[in-house]
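thread: overnight batch results

M.L. [08:02]
morning all. the overnight job finished for the chain we discussed friday. pasting input first so we're all looking at the same thing
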Amino acid sequence: MNVSSIASGTKKPIPGGTGGLPASVFQRSEAEHWRTSRQCHPFSVGLKRTLARGALTVLATVAALVALRAEGISATSGDSLAILPHAIVLRGPKARQAIVVERQAHGQWVGPVTEGVVFESSNAKVVRVSKSVAIPVGDGKATIRARWKDHTAQIDVTVEHQKVDEPWSFRNHVQAVLTKAGCNSGACHGAAAGKNGFRLS
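M.L. [08:03]
and the structure it wrote out:
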């Protein structure tokens, strides 16, 4: 409670209220009062402890992440490879199949391996690999093996009907040419009414 006026000279009004205590109690310098209050205030002490614990937690987390990173780089013995798809069947001379090599680390898929992969065919007269694409050569069965660093993976490949001429179809042979030339667009024969009596829509 603030003291607005005191008749006696032994007591002086102190901002914030003194409750009538002698002024000598409050004769410490402002700097000392500020320093002491900050050092001894329970909230300040708790804040310092919280900050210290937070700093230690951050350091421990960083150390753990660095250790895990080092372990992931050095522990390559747990890595393995897999080829997708797991088996290939190529029918006809125009058949093609893209091959994806996936890396697995400690039971979890890490991602595709795109550099440094070497493909080998057990029978080049049946299937060959060019730019990660399996291309049929002749009827039969073979194995495609992928090698990356010290790891290998392989899949079985079956090639059929290589001596059979592929029949022409509008979807596979004609439509692709029309799309490339823009003939089936709305400005050409792909319009609803067609063009010059020829309509593709």
